[in-house]
Amino acid sequence: MKRGPKEIEDSSRRISRRAMLLGTAQLGMIGILGARMASMQVEQADTFRMLAEENRINIGLIPPARGLIYDSEGVVLADNEQHYTITMTREGAGDVDEVLARLDRIIALDPEVLEKARKELKELSPFVPVTIARRISWEDVARVTVNAPALPGVVAELGRSRTYPQGLDMAHVVGYVGPVSDFDLSRIEDQDPLLQIPRFQIGKTMVENNLEHALRGSAGTKRVEVNAAGRVMRELDRVEGIPGADVQLTVDARLQNYIQARLDGESAAAVVIDVTNGDIKGIGSAPTFDPNVFVQGISVALWDELNEREIDAKLHRRPLAAKTVQGTYPPGSTFKMVTALAALEDGAIEAEDTVRCVGHTDVFDVRFHCWRRAGHGNMNLNESLKQSCDVYYYDIAQRVGIDKIAAMGRKLGLGERHDLPMSAIRSGIMPDKEWKREARGEDWRVGDTVNASIGQGYVQTSPLQLAVMTARIATGRAVKPRLVRSIDGVEQPSGAGESLGLNENNLRRVRRAMYDVSNHSRGTAYRTRIQEEQFRMAGKTGTSQVRRITQAERDAGVTRNADLPWNRRDHALFVSFAPADNPKYAVAVVVEHGGGGSTAAAPIARDVMLQALYEGTPPLSAYPSASRGQIAEQQRRLADLIRDIQPGRGTQDT
Amino acid sequence: MSYLEYQVKYVPAGFRKLLFLNWPVVFLVTAVSGFGFLMLYSVAGGSMDPWVTPQVQRFGLGVAVMIGMAMVPIWFWRNMAVVAYLLAFVLLVLVEFVGVERNGSQRWLDLGPMDLQPSELMKISLIMLLAAYYDWLPLNKVSKPVWILVPLIFIAAPAYLVLSQPDLGTTILLVSGGGAIMFLAGVHWAYFATVIAGVVGLVTAVFQSRGTGWQVLKDYQYRRIDTFLDPTQDPLGAGYHITQAKIALGSGGWTGRGFMQGTQSRLNFLPEKHTDFIFTTLAEEFGFVGAFGLLVLYALIIIFCVMSAITNKDRFASLITMGVAVTFFLFFSVNMAMVMGLAPVVGVPLPLVSYGGSAMLVLMVAFGLVQSAHVHKPR
């Protein structure tokens, strides 16, 4: 169609006008877009930059290496074992089932773990490593590595885990670690982010638990860049954590090993204290358990087994309990030194004063018996302790009164919760009038004093307390037990203690009597004496009743321990120090339901003492000739249980 | 029609036509495409594969097509308008039946070596048809209702097909582009005012009625509209993408994080980073300077097209030039507004920058028309 020039002009002008209008509108819109860009990229740039950084950066924790625990000679008691874990990613493997089948042919896999791994591989993101096998041997690692080309996505990773090279010996001292549980988290107020790491190992009991803070160290951090799917792309930077502090204990692993071996088969506890500085050289409890099984989390079956023995089997041997501090027992005759010292210090008696023992004494209308029905005749301090006459103490206790006896007991560390980094330490009971009013709501009666005078009745002591008491008697100083020698190389305060302010003559008399217990032919522990002149031992036997002997039974003849069920038998106790003239060690032994102190506890204490004094197996010449044959036989038997422990690398102090 | 209709002083012929190309537009188009190559290289993690190589090849082909088309007189293209429209329309109908479905949308035809997106073809065909229609229509009939109905059908038919694919972005582009040609051709203001008022009224009614007894839509439909308009209400779905896009854009700052250093794109926080959201990568890596620079390039293309259209006395030529300019403008402004959180997320690529064969070729064809109009301008 032909248009005239005018029409063309007209059309062109109209289009131009509207085109200008539209063009202007477009430029206006472009302006808005530009302004929006400026607002976002210039004004709010910092906000968006921060959001972008939050998007891409994740902060991960680097768990620090847990501090090691050493014995006094530098032997490792708690170590960090490096072990290999096999992991696999779905993405790397491609055909998961095929690769798993190949891996199974190379190293035998646990079907249970494998089943779980299969499930996780299906469910988790393809790049998340799933654990296929834990704690595999070095040979298996080598096999996997050699076959790496056939095992895409399979990686052997190095992990760290706690191990206890001394096994059962140190379970009751060092304790164990375990994966942090919800219960732990609810119980402890600890903001340490490390605890949020799944299966992070924390100390559960004993030193591991009590020195957790020092041993754990602090977490390092690493910042990693992640993509939108959460895959780690690269590490941006890392700040290494601070490894946990190493801890050195006062315990000697070799002595401890001997103690556990010697106590094997009994339900017993033994404590060895260096009286010069309070160092606990050995602190054994039997039966014991292997702490290594707790580290990865204990199996239900084993837990039941350990607990069943405790609850059900009527044996009450409680392998999980550290009887040295968690068990309390009536001290029996080992308490008599307390009564004697209280009376001597009070001036209620002189050492040579005598009391006539006729086998019993009557307090009002209650008759209290001496262990020797026939009586001991005239008893002074030395004879009464040597022969462990009860009536003498019934008598002097009534003269001096319970409050002064209790004060003396406390002075010697009874009833006191000695502060050691161990768990569930019990303070026992050192009863007096006030205690009974508060605890029982009853008035103290003279009969209670009579019972307490020979360590029966309400008196409850732990083996540790008995050892401390003996150390204090041996030195006259307030020896404080010390379990930790140094933390991170820093020496802990010595437990040598200040003088107790007791009359040295009184102490000497009691020590002399204790010497006679072991070395006088009429002493109750004469048969278990130390023959070696320079290591002569002073001690005191104790046999504490756990049942009431009725008058009817007495009339019929007291049942012999061997005829009673195990848990009704008497506890056997023995406390001792040696060398008698220059004390080095104090030893306390309690054998639960062991019968007589002189027969069940004293031999153990003597053997342990010799082991400590000789720093190894003592020669037979240290024993009385009558028992050498039997001792030789015992040494042969124990040789199987005693390991060769070499002094280690980890001595800390400088 | 030909030069015979005009009093012309000079007629370029043969290769001399090359001298009369709208060279600024050629350079600008090349510059923008170059930006695109850089960004595709970056989002591929510093690799020519899988996007840069084909994109460059298509651009080369596109440039050849553009210049080839420029050599052909503009009236030839006008005569081809009906054919092109019908072809595009038939292909659109075909897509409905034998189209390839991707991401829940049936837009593509499988042509063996490449996939064709007929809706892209329709964008340019519709503009051609409308420009030819108004070139043919006597000026005094332009605002007559009957003659308005015809172009409305031309627009509505393909728009309906595209919307049913569904492809809201292209639909908006078709309707707006068509409307722009009608506006330019001189359709009376009152029609546009009425349509705008009507749409505003309808939208207002729909929203005002919400919660009343006579509400137009169901509750869930309102909620969908809410999410569509404000994706941040759905932070893990649609909102996640737009939030990440805004973070990428904003974190670019003045000068950006550096070429291939954009964390948002490199670490896959951005969706569709080689297609619809490629601008966010550019803004993140080159900052305000780069993003605004691209905007300026786009603006210059529009300006040169508008100038070419204004100075062209041929009705079809200036209408087609403006039509291409408006479509091009709608392309990039909707895309940018979308990734900057100013507009809802509709699938519109960034012209010449986003990866995509159909879009690239169609745009080059469109610029071929613009060039042809420019070269054969009555002088």
TrEMBL record, chain A:
Its main location: membrane. It is a single-pass membrane protein. It is found in: Cell membrane; Membrane. Residues 269-609 form the Penicillin-binding protein transpeptidase domain. GO terms for molecular function: serine-type D-Ala-D-Ala carboxypeptidase activity. It is an enzyme of class 3 (hydrolase). Residues 62-236 form the Penicillin-binding protein dimerisation domain. Its EC number is 3.4.16.4. The chain crosses the membrane at residues 20-39. Keywords: Carboxypeptidase, Cell inner membrane, Cell membrane, Cell shape, Cell wall biogenesis/degradation, Hydrolase, Membrane, Peptidoglycan synthesis, Protease, Transmembrane, Transmembrane helix. NCBIfam families: pbp2_mrdA. This is Penicillin-binding protein 2. The gene is mrdA.
From TrEMBL, chain B:
InterPro entries: Cell_cycle_FtsW-rel_CS, FtsW/RodA, RodA/MrdB. It is an enzyme of class 2 (transferase). The gene is rodA. The keyword Cell membrane applies. Its EC number is 2.4.99.28. It is found in: Cell inner membrane; Membrane. PANTHER family: CELL CYCLE PROTEIN, PEPTIDOGLYCAN GLYCOSYLTRANSFERASE MRDB. The keyword Transmembrane helix applies. This is Peptidoglycan glycosyltransferase MrdB. Pathway: Cell wall biogenesis; peptidoglycan biosynthesis. It is a multi-pass membrane protein. NCBIfam families: rodA_shape. The lineage of its organism: Bacteria, Pseudomonadati, Pseudomonadota, Alphaproteobacteria, Rhodobacterales. Belongs to the SEDS family. MrdB/RodA subfamily. The chain crosses the membrane at residues 20-44, 56-76, 82-100, 145-163, 170-192, 286-307, 319-346, 352-370. It holds the Pfam family FTSW_RODA_SPOVE. Keywords: Cell inner membrane, Cell membrane, Cell shape, Cell wall biogenesis/degradation, Glycosyltransferase, Membrane, Peptidoglycan synthesis, Transferase, Transmembrane, Transmembrane helix. Peptidoglycan polymerase that is essential for cell wall elongation. It catalyses: [GlcNAc-(1->4)-Mur2Ac(oyl-L-Ala-gamma-D-Glu-L-Lys-D-Ala-D-Ala)](n)-di-trans,octa-cis-undecaprenyl diphosphate + beta-D-GlcNAc-(1->4)-Mur2Ac(oyl-L-Ala-gamma-D-Glu-L-Lys-D-Ala-D-Ala)-di-trans,octa-cis-undecaprenyl diphosphate = [GlcNAc-(1->4)-Mur2Ac(oyl-L-Ala-gamma-D-Glu-L-Lys-D-Ala-D-Ala)](n+1)-di-trans,octa-cis-undecaprenyl diphosphate + di-trans,octa-cis-undecaprenyl diphosphate + H(+).
